[in-house]
Amino acid sequence: MLFDPGTRNEPETVVWGPILMEGGSRAIDWQGYTGSARSQDPAPALLAATRAAPSRPNGGYSVGVSTTNQIPDALSRIIGEFSSAPKSLRLPLLLEYAGKLPALPPELEGTLERVHECQTPLFLKASLDEAGAVELAFDAPPEAPTTRGFASIVSAGLSGSSVDAALATPEDFYEQMGLSELISPLRLRGLGSIVARVKRQLREAAG
User: Fold this and answer.
1) Distance CA 142, CA 67 (A)
2) Number of domains present in the structure of the chain
3) What integer pLDDT is reported at residue 58 of this predicted model?
4) Residue 174 dihedral angles phi and psi, to the nearest 5°
């Protein structure tokens, strides 16, 4: 089953390729595109096979990129997961991450800061736990899966890391994930802006 991109409602360009789905049909609104697909969960067997395959050297980075050692291990693994996945499975993988974004704890409601550079509303709070490790909280509407996927990647990649490791993370790390062929540069810069806002708040928290 191929994804039907349907009608584009926004000026940004998102290039869609074949996306293998299974299960019942449903409607998906992916940042301006409305279409039908065959399942909420993208090709679980193929995604599992991709994760089981050996990752690329240097955590999935292309030859010539020297910033791998500046990235927390968890984020490096995520980069390798995307960069080693077939092009047709990268957007389903992003959708899977969108569904894994941790819910906002009730006690944090009203304390988050908006990331205005994102195309859809996204709010975040970066702080430190008692051991000095990074803690992140995000809030984004369920109808914005791209933004939720970005937030989930940052949450999974930086939460629990040291402040130094988080601050050393390049804001353009997403360039090595293979998403530029599928998502517009404007939206991808929103992912970089999330990291920039996290780093600013961490500097403030660390004093």
Assistant:
1) 33
2) 1
3) 37
4) -60, -20
